[in-house]
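Could you help me review a protein record that somebody else here produced? This is what I was given.
***
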Amino acid sequence: MEIVGWLVGLAIAALVLGPFAVTLVRRLRHQQRRRMVDAPRKISIVGNEGERCADDRHIRDRARVRHDGRGGYRTFCSRCGAPLARTHHGSWQAVED
């Protein structure tokens, strides 16, 4: 009879603690994913920056657009990684950091 009590107790504990365990696993996976996304560039491409983005035809990275704190927006070129800022007319221009 004591074994049945232990089994019922374990079942109740699993029902109560199960959602907490699932939430913890999801948070850890999300944290790891954010670390990978926010990690600095590990590879720098030397010599190809001028070729790939000639004539200031940078392609903005839509996923990395952020507010600059002064009413504008900042992002990076998805090809060469050059910093870009949005002008008041809505076009994106390369800027010095």
Q: What stands out?
A: The chain has two domains: 1-39, 55-97. The chain has two helices and four strands. Confidence is low (pLDDT under 50) at residues 44-51. Residues 58 and 77 are 6 Å apart (CA to CA).
